[in-house]
Amino acid sequence: MTAAVASNAAGVFRRAATFLYRRPNVYLALLLIPPLLWFGTVYLGSLFALLANSFYAIDEFTAKIVYQPTLATFKQVVTQPAHIDIILRTLVMAVAVTIACAIIALPIANYMVRYASPRRKALFYVGVMLPMWMSYLVKVYAWRLILAKQGILSWILESCGLQGVLDAVLGIPAIGGPSLSSSYIGMFIVFVYMWLPYMILPLAAALERVPESLLQASADLGARPRQTFWNVVLPLVVPGLAAGSVFTFSLTLGDYIIPSVVGAPGYFIGMMVYQQQGTAGNIPLAAAFSVVPIVLIMIYLQLAKRAGAFDAL
Amino acid sequence: MAAAIEFRNVARNYGEVRAVDGVSLSIAQGEFFAMLGPSGSGKTTCLRLIAGFEAPDGGSILLDGQDVTDRAPYERDVNTVFQDYALFPHMTVLQNVAYGLRVRKVPRDEQRRRALEMLELVKLSALGDRRPSQLSGGQRQRVSLARALINHPRVLLLDEPLGALDLKLREEMQIELKNLQRRLGITFVFVTHDQGEALSMADRVAVFNQGKIEQLDTPRALYTQPITTFVARFVGGANVIEGELAQRLRGSPQPFAVRAENVRLRKMDDTVSGQPESQCTRCPGTVMDVQYHGATTRCQVRLDSGELVSAASTDADVAILPAGAAVMVEWPHAAAVTLR
User: Fold this and answer.
1) Which residues are paired to B12 by β-bridges?
2) Inter-chain contact A220–B84, Cβ cutoff 8 Å?
3) CB contact under 8 A, B74 and A224
4) Which segments in chain B show pLDDT lower than 50?
5) How much is the pTM?
6) Chain A nearest-CA residue for B153
7) Predicted-assembly ipTM surpassing the 0.95 threshold
8) Which residues of chain A have pLDDT under 50?
9) Which residue, among B277, B271, B267, has the nearest Cα to B321 in the 3D structure?
10) Residue B136 and residue A155: Cα distance in Å, rounded?
């Protein structure tokens, strides 16, 4: 009796296995449903809920959300001068940080990939990622101390007799300020520090994919190292550059901690979102503001695509 | 006239490994020169030393009588066809071919005109606007050739250029390369591990082994008069007899080579010999394996003294000698080439 049940069960399994083998699509679907459910509901669903909120508006008197689709909140975002200021300020910072990260990351990644010995290369990878393993808040506050008026950086500059340089830099209108930790320059330094690994790693990956023989072929045909860089290396790492810049760009667009800990008092998009959904309780406005980075990144990707950034993919 | 390329006691080490170990050679202007050897023999390193991708640890390299040992690749009048073709994936075929002119700041319309000429030379005029990824292996090979030739180099270096092609294409390209070389009069230095390719194309061949040149000679001399056991085996696929057997057969332990086509097999009971005893070396053995190759049939014979000898014959009756048959192996004395 038990033996019959056992053999029956084995038969069921056998048939199920055969069934799945015959219909690979069913098999694939069974494997994919759990992660897709997660991705669809938790990931995209919450994003959709957020975006949906941006199409509502808040009632000025009751401070309650009116659940009627409207573009009023968006209109508020793109027409109020204060809001435009915030968007422009964040955008300029994001662009500046992205460019600086690219300029710093390219030589480092190139050295790591082409010149470093395997041991040193491993050391560099660890070095690049090490800051990513530390608490974000600790790093931001550490930077505030480093950049403070009596902080270590100004102390070092003073000891080197470079106080004048620091004063001159801080004297630049708009981006200067009383100290590095309360100026946009300081904020910029912290942003660049924070997001540099996100630029180095995709760039290094892109450089790894450029075969040595292409560089040799270029030199062989008479190109000087500079020409090889501009004609061969740079065009081929543009996809990596694009990937890295999406990171640095979007991370800067969305961050609210760095602008509130370091730098001048001007608002950034992230701070606005944080404040509107929290203390101000204006969820629709917060949602509308969080759409701004999405739109900006889409525009950026379109521009990159049009410039041929992904042709080599 | 100064030699196109001259190596003076050139050495290149990778850590403990002596990739190139004191090589001296001289390649004449307009010569089709092959560097032949198994992988790791130093032939490719020699080519890279000529191109300037590597610097020697010792010795000097001269191009056209000028010492270029310390010059960068872009300062040398040589161009390379890479084993993997190394075409720039982000450029069209035409841009790839024109690259050598572009980096030399040749005017744009001239770049285009000369690149088109080059494409015509390699019979790819129609494909100028394609990307390398849209080409077949043979087409990429031709683009790579056109790109390397556009600067009119004094020397063209080819690193296993036919390695990735299928047999038929390879044979076509061999003939085409040879014709191209004759027509352009450029010195070609060709690296290969395929001895057939080296013998059929080159004017002279340097056989590399363990970082040294074993023998540098014309293909015919390499094949008929090898001087080392390595060359006899690698180039001619010859039987090398050494040690005790050599002592017994020829009265000297000096190794010697006998090419398979000079070895004849006779049935044991076949008393009629083609050649007089006094002019032949004979030893008994057993057929181990028979391989039919069309024009020839190869037999592997285990001599009674233990050595394995292969015999190639066009004689149809060899084919009916079954594996396991006892045979008499013989070759004329004149066919034995004494080796170092």
Assistant:
1) B20
2) no
3) yes
4) none
5) 0.81
6) A221
7) no
8) none
9) B267
10) 64
